[in-house]
Amino acid sequence: MKFYLFLFFLSLSGELLAPILFPQIRILGFMPIILFALSRLSLPKTVWVAFIAGLTVDVYAKTTPLGFFALNYILSALFLSRYKKFFSEEKTVSFMFYASFFSFVSTLLHFFLYPFLGSPIKLTLISLFTDLICMPLLDGIYTLIWAILPTFLYKYLTDPKQIQFYKTKLGLFRNGLSRIVSK
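Request: output the structure for the sequence above.
Response:
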């Protein structure tokens, strides 16, 4: 549970900071928590995680009604749940491709669901290329940098054996983490 709270706030910060750092790029900030839920949790729990992530995005989205992103993330998670056996969380490149695949499916669903709101999307060859090829690749890189590497660091720092190893073998963390390791 503590891991998912860490990942939720990491995803929330990525969702809120991405438009500030890269205003022209729309990154799916909550995608990593949905992917980790797909790889670790049962399908009903994953649907709840996707619903909460989508509802969080819906709260501050201006152009879509409440529930649009929640529906998008739930349908994407349901579609990708059958492919989770092909993508491993331990292999970073495989998990990056899983993130890109999730972004591709979510964008396709966005294209199909958005006209139901009453405003059609003007699709050109350039917009299809950027939205269906470039953006999923950027979402995969975002997942690597913003979610996979910090979770490896989180696992690494919360494992007392690793801290004890580096405290005794290398002489690091002598003062700050000695209270955590010793009981």
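DSSP finds eight helices and no strands in the chain.
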